[in-house]
TrEMBL record:
GO terms for molecular function: rRNA (uridine-2'-O-)-methyltransferase activity. This is Ribosomal RNA large subunit methyltransferase E. Keywords: Cytoplasm, Methyltransferase, rRNA processing, S-adenosyl-L-methionine, Transferase. It comes from the Bacteria. InterPro entries: RNA_methyltr_RlmE (IPR050082), RNA_MeTrfase_FtsJ_dom (IPR002877), rRNA-MeTfrase_E (IPR015507), SAM-dependent_MTases_sf (IPR029063). It is found in: Cytoplasm. Specifically methylates the uridine in position 2552 of 23S rRNA at the 2'-O position of the ribose in the fully assembled 50S ribosomal subunit. S-adenosyl-L-methionine binds at residues 61, 63, 81, 97, 122. It is an enzyme of class 2 (transferase). It comes from Neisseria iguanae.
Length: 206
């Protein structure tokens, strides 16, 4: 039998004893990340009934679950991920890589020229363990998400994205400030303290 490393044992122990993992299991969310979005939304009131929004990097679907409940029957959630995501009521999902023109075209056909009220993105690259490489991959994806938001958000729309503090962070923050009237940082309690992840909220697209 394979012997677990100390780090994997620590992660497993943390996961098993994690309050948000237990809450997600109790209330039917697919991942503890649901509580990050719930907490941010409680503070910032981003998601409202009747909204049209896109969830980029949506799998396994906990953010889409939260969003679908909050927009209600008169709203619409569009979700996109390279990984397969099981069906969620009220969510239109496309499996594919939105760096590819064909996937993006399919996604845009679903939107049918409707501008989005909100774009949310909890995406992260597959981590290699090389901090420099992983950070570069992360901001590449964040850059694509920002481009998507620029092209599909309505004027006055909002954008919430996960980033990792480190190389590229200040440049990305500056890029967001060129597009949105206000850019705020959020570190929800559900985000583990040891993680360098932080959420940037761009409000009121110009």
């Amino acid at each position: 039998m394979a012997v677990r490393s100390k780090s994997s044992k620590a992660w497993l122990n943390e996961h098993v004893n994690d309050h948000y993992v237990h809450m997600a299991q109790k209330y039917g969310y697919r991942a503890r990340a649901a509580y990050k979005l719930l907490e941010i939304n409680e503070k910032d009131k981003l998601i409202k009934p009747g909204m049209i929004l896109a969830d980029l990097g949506s799998a396994p679907g906990s953010w889409s679950q939260v969003a679908a409940k909050l927009v209600g029957k008169n709203g619409q959630v569009f979700a996109l991920d390279i990984l397969l995501m099981d069906e969620i009521d009220g969510v239109s999902f496309i499996q594919g890589d939105f760096r590819e023109d064909g996937v993006l075209a399919q996604f845009e056909s679903l939107l049918d020229n409707r501008p989005l009220d909100l774009v949310i993105c909890d995406m992260a690259p597959n981590m290699s363990g090389n901090a420099v490489t992983d950070q570069a991959k992360s901001f590449y994806l964040c850059g694509l998400a920002l481009d998507f938001a620029v092209n599909h958000l309505k004027k006055g729309g909002n954008f919430l994205v996960k980033v990792f503090q480190g190389t590229g962070y200040q440049e990305y923050l500056a890029a967001m400030r060129e597009i949105f009237d206000v850019v705020q940082t959020r570190k929800p309690e559900a985000s583990r303290n040891r993680s360098s992840e932080i959420y940037l909220l761009g409000r009121n697209k110009r």
